Structure formats: C-alpha cells, structure tokens
Predict the structure.
Amino acid sequence: REPARAKAAAGAETPSFGDLYRYVRAHWRVYLPRVGSTTTVALATGGWTAWVAAGIGRSWALSPSQIGHVAGPITMIATPIGVLTMGYIMERLARRGLKDGAVRVMFATQLIGRIPTLLLFQMPTQESRWIVFAGAALMGGGAGMQVGGASVISDITPGRLMGKLVSTYNLIQVVLGLAMGLGIVAASLAVR
C-alpha cells in the first residue's frame, strides 16, 4: 500500500514549474531514458496512426469510407481492451513484488505489437489483413508505452510535483511524439 500523503496546510506554497525542472535536471539519469523512450514510440505511433489509412487505401484499393467503416470499430474496441489489460497486468506484477512490472509490460507490448504492424501489408487476404490490424490495435497502438511510462514516472516522482510533471510529460508526448511523427512520415514520403 502507498504510504499516507501529508495534506498541505492552507495557503502552503505549491511547487512551480521551475521547481519541477530543477528536480528533473537533478535526476536526469532517471527521467531521460524513460521520457526519451516513450517519446520515440509516440513519434512512431503518430506517424503510423496518421498514415496507416492512406497506406491501406493504396495497398488494398479501398476508399476512405471502406477503411473507416472497418478500422474505426476495430480500433474503438481493441485499443481500450488492450490498454485496460496492460494496466491490469501491471497491477498484478506490482502485487507480486515486481517493481519493474510496468516497464516489462511496456516493452513487451511494443515488441509484440511490432509483429502485426510489420505483417499488416504482407497478408494475402482482406480478412487476414483486418485481423492483423486488430492485433496491432489490441497492443494499444503504441499506447502501452505511454501507459507504462506514466506509471513508471508516477513511481519515481514526489507527489507534490506530479501534476506539473504529468502535464509536462503529456505535452512532450503530444508535441515531440505524435505531432512530429506525422510530419516526419510525411517528409519521408515526399522524398521518394
């Protein structure tokens, strides 16, 4: 069980973003690999997610409407199941005393999730392609890394800094990860 947290006294000074950045700078060897790895996966996920429909349309000769009618429901069902399952497994591992359970789940989902990602455009039939697409979505579509990363960061960050750290972490994931992934994939396609 988590130890009881002391409540701040009324009017107590809350930490600033400067306090957060000083803390992270002092512990950069802990934060850099965790935030760096999750941001790298967010970058790949941003590019993949943004362009997979175009790739499916070109490779399988499907219209955006045909893709959306199948890919949308698959993603809306499989991704939440995958992410919730990851959280459940992380909790089970933590209860068993594995302090690195979140990291194990995080990396396992990324490794396992690459298999359907790599196979997606190699499958011989339309049905097998959608099954592989569902497998990629079930692995959280990259969300496993963010779920695990946030879990690990919450374990190593003092409670008084959590709000500011979570907002900064999410900002990094969205701007440096997801948004840049979209642009990098688009730029690499333009070079061809």
